[in-house]
Write a structure and sequence with these properties.
By secondary structure, the protein is mostly helical. It contains five helices and five strands; from the N terminus they run E-E-E-H-E-E-H-H-H-H. Helix content is about 70%, strand content about 10%. The strands form two sheets. A three-stranded antiparallel β-sheet has the order 1-2-3, with no helix packed on it. Strand 1 and strand 2 form a beta hairpin. Keywords: Coiled coil, DNA-binding, Nucleus, Transcription, Transcription regulation. This is MADS-box domain-containing protein.
Length: about 230
């Protein structure tokens, strides 16, 4: 019977380690065991006063590390110096080439895994998937769609807020321009009135006074004539 974590019991109580086929279970197991591994590395460095450096890359390429020394690069440099002091039949160049080859193979496997997972998320090569793995892909797709919808709603909300703010600024500007137009119209009318007063004929008031005086004289003469009769 297959056990959790990709382990299979063999005769004698021993377990055979193998890759977990289900994507969801594999991710959950990676997260749990990564935390446990980092914890064990920290405990080893504290209990035994050892210099420990741990590097972990997830199937999706995320990088996790632990370093008991102040600098992870310092521990790596120490490791490189130690490997360069290997026996003569293992030259540093050969070790470097071997290390690079191992890293390239590991990266190639990780790329294949990511590409296979991507094709499955796109609905391709699903014939070899188990029912549980298909269910995991379906849950992942629903989760992704939910996240996309939330982001879309957030973007629409931001756009609506921006449009309202722009409309308010435009209305305020229009109101300000209308107020300025009213003030300019009043000032223009006042200037026109002042211009009319300044351009009025200079002798007009004197003529009006002479006419008034003439009317008064006529009135007086009339009264005198009536009095004689």
């Amino acid at each position: 019977m297959a056990a959790a974590g990709g382990q299979q019991r063999r005769r004698g109580g021993r377990r055979e380690m193998r890759r977990i086929e289900d994507t969801t279970r594999r991710q959950v197991t990676f997260s749990k065991r990564r935390k446990g591994l980092l914890k064990k590395a920290s405990e080893l460095s504290v209990l035994c006063d050892a210099e420990v450096a741990l590097l972990v890359f997830s199937p999706r390429g995320r990088f996790f590390h632990f370093a008991s020394a102040p600098s992870l690069e310092g521990t790596i440099d120490r490791y490189i110096s130690h490997t360069q002091e290997a026996p003569a039949n293992k030259k540093p160049r050969e070790l470097t080439v071997k290390n690079m080859k191992s890293q390239s193979e590991t990266l190639a496997m990780e790329i294949d895994t990511v590409e296979a997972y991507t094709r499955k998320m796109q609905g391709e090569n699903l014939e070899s998937c188990s029912l549980q793995e298909l269910h995991g892909l379906e849950m992942q797709m629903e989760k992704s769609l939910s996240s996309i919808r939330l982001q879309k709603a957030s973007k629409w909300s931001q756009c609506a807020i921006y449009v309202v703010a722009v409309q308010k600024k435009l209305m305020d500007k229009i109101s300000q321009l209308q107020q300025q137009e009213k003030i300019l119209s009043e000032e223009n009318a006042l200037l026109l009135d002042q211009g009319k007063v300044q351009h009025a004929p200079i002798g007009a008031p004197a003529r009006e006074m002479n006419q008034n005086q003439h009317v008064q004289d006529i009135d007086v003469d009339t009264e005198l004539v009536i009095g004689r009769r």
